[in-house]
Amino acid sequence: MYIQILINSILLGGIYACIAVGFSLVWGVMNILNVLHGTFLMLGGYVTYWMFKLYGVDPFLSLPLSAAVMFVVGYFVQRVLINKIVRAPMFMSLILTFGLQMLVVRLAIYFFTGDFRSVQPSYASFSLKFFGLIIPFVRVAIFVLGVALTGILFWFMARTRTGRAIRATRMDLDSAQLMGVNIGKIYAITYGLGAAVAATAGSLVSVGFAISPVSDVEFLSKSFIICIIGGLGNISGALAGGLILGLAENFGALYLGPGLQNAVGYALLILVLFIRPSGLLGRKGFE
Amino acid sequence: MFKPWSIIQWILMGMGVFALIFLPSFSENDVIRTWMDILMIAILATSWNFIGGLTGYPSFAPAAFFGLGAYVTAIMMNAGFNFFVTLVFGASFGGMVALLLGIPILRLRGHYFAIATFGVAEFFREIADNLRITGGGDGINLPQIIGGPDYFTRFFYFSMLGVAVMAFLAQYFVTRHRLGYGLVAIRENEDAAAMTGINTTKYKIIAFVLSSIFPAMGGGVYAYRAAFLEPFDVFDILFSIKAIVMSMLGGAGTVMGPLVGSFIMEYLADFLWSEFTEFHSVLLGLIIVLIVLFLPRGLMALFQELRLKGWRSLGSILHSNIQRFRV
Q: Is residue A253 less than 8 Å (CB to CB) from chain B?
């Protein structure tokens, strides 16, 4: 039983990491607390849902599409709106993205209705069984893809020219500009990347779990918790934070009852903020 | 002291107070209810101004204290206490919680502080959703108020007005006191403020406590009026958002700003959006975006600038606002 919960926690933690990694990227590079993050996740999930529902496209095949769509959306949101206030007190970007979130979510409820929907491919109920343990196939696939996605992002940031420009911008905005980095464009690309990763996570979530326009707040608060636990500024922080949250939630539900599962997450958030505000793997200097 | 503008301001304020006191004697109940909503939001916005406007700490906690106050009133009234006694208890309880939370939370800055306050509100909601004394997710009933609709509309209106006046006066005196200047100094540069001998920790905690007691009382009035509470109703993040937005629309950090913002937004909302309630949050979202881009310092600052430069420069003021912080 404990091993089963452990496996569930790890599978859940993988998807949590994937949910939070784009959020961590945007916060870490631009110091923007991106309230739209959960919304991008939700919209990505809907891209996959409608592709499956209307055209019968396999959910795992529509991942690149939802990533591409949300990259473009994110790119222009940053270019047209957020870039206008990047140098303002950071509270401005927080409240700006909040306004956009309210706007988009309400429209999504209007167009998609508030129903919870999930993609049900023919292989949805397959699972591996051995020694009495049940490992659902879809969740394993989500876990593997989620971790792979995080790895790709890690590689992108470490090895490519754009990734280097993003890291340079994070270190010193003005110096990066002097070195010929087009800040406005780099910011837009970073934000687009964050949105694309979020959308992929959302597509994955729409297969194994369920999505609705209002579930974006849940994704957002999970991202908060994961980034605070793991710490900002590095991708492994998101991975560690995701795993810890997955474990805490599952064992919290076991010992305290399923009703308090979410409360455990928030309690953990507040606790980590009290003890170690920069997170377990985070670096100081992000505010 | 005898500048003509300040005299006009005082006359206008006096007229406003008179209008608010005598409003119920010549208005229909639905107009009074609209004003009750304006006052409730004004309480939240004015209180947020202590911590968010003056001190510059982006707090998402108003919903937390609003909900706490509402539940204190609900639980105590069910135990037979008088309504006004429960308001005092709610305010004290809210203030105590703010004191205990403030000590660790106010060490955080920026986004971390914002997330911590958000987390506190959500944590309280999850707890209220699971406790027996709060009725859990099923909600909790309050004793119904006795009397006709004319009577209780006025009763709740004047209760709200009383809390709003207290919040406003507290704010008025704080901004003219050492404390207010200290809080603004913390907003401008906390380390420098500490170096000039301001006990920043103490000041911030006082601001946080002040920003918690009035929402708790407002929540109590709201609870008695609604006669039924659910965790999702009163710990709604929208209460925090509205407090922030109204405060910013009027002008965060100014005395009149939160009042002006609440009045304009809520009255417009009631006037325009009663037709299409579905798009209430779409419009609210749109207005937030427009404020942040074009009026980052609020309407009060805009009026001031217009008085200096004349109405013709409206376009250029808005243009320079949107150019100021871009990359």
A: no
Neighbour tally for B53: CB within 10 Å: 31
Task: Report whether B111 contacts A90 (CB < 8 A).
Answer: yes
Q: Which long-range contacts does B297-300 make (Cβ < 8 Å, 24+ apart)?
A: B297/B251, B297/B252, B297/B321, B298/B248, B298/B249, B298/B250, B298/B251, B298/B252, B298/B254, B298/B257, B298/B261, B299/B249, B299/B250, B299/B251, B299/B257, B299/B260, B299/B261, B299/B264, B300/B250, B300/B251, B300/B254, B300/B256, B300/B257, B300/B260
CB contact under 8 A, A273 and B112: yes
Instruction: Report yes or no: A205 and A222 within 8 Å, Cβ to Cβ.
Output: no
CA–CA distance, A171 with A30 (Å, rounded to integer): 10
Which residue is closest to B106 within chain A, CA to CA?
A: A274
pTM: 0.88
User: Which residue's structure tokens are 């006359």?
Assistant: B11
Using CA atoms, how far apart are residues B53 and B49, in angstroms rounded to an integer?
4
The verdict on B278 touching A (C-beta cutoff 8 Å) is yes
Residue indicated by tokens 């009383």: B162
Tell me the C-alpha distance between A10 and A16, whole Å. Answer: 10
Q: Is residue B327 within 8 angstroms of chain A, CB to CB?
A: yes
- For residue range B204-254, what is the model confidence (pLDDT) as tens digits? 999 999 999 999 999 999 999 999 999 888 998 889 988 998 898 888 888
Amino acid identity of residue B150, one-letter, is D
Mutation target for B interface from A79, A80, A273, A284: give the one with most B CBs within 10 A: A273
Flag whether residue B138 sits within 8 Å of chain A, measured between CB atoms.
Answer: no
Contacts of A274 in chain B (CB under 8 A): 104
The 10 Å Cβ neighbour count of residue B238 is 12
Chains A and B: how many Cβ contacts under 8 Å? 138
Interface confidence, given as ipTM, is 0.84
Q: Is B318 on the interface with A (CB under 8 A)?
A: no
Calpha distance A220→A205 (Å, rounded): 14
Q: Are B98 and B87 in contact (CB under 8 A)?
A: no
- Chain B residues touching residue A92 (CB < 8 angstroms): 292, 296, 325
Residues on chain A touching B111 (C-beta within 8 angstroms): 27, 31, 33, 90, 94, 286-287
Which residue, among A46, A27, A44, A43, has the nearest Cα to A35 in the 3D structure? A27
- Tell whether B292 is within 8 A of chain A (Cβ): yes
Residue A56 burial (10 A CB sphere; 0-12, 13-18, 19+): exposed
pLDDT tens-place string over residues B101-132: 998 899 888 888 998 999 899 899 988 988 88
The Cα–Cα gap between B166 and B158 comes to 12
Contact B325 A85 (CB under 8 A): yes
Average pLDDT, chain A: 87
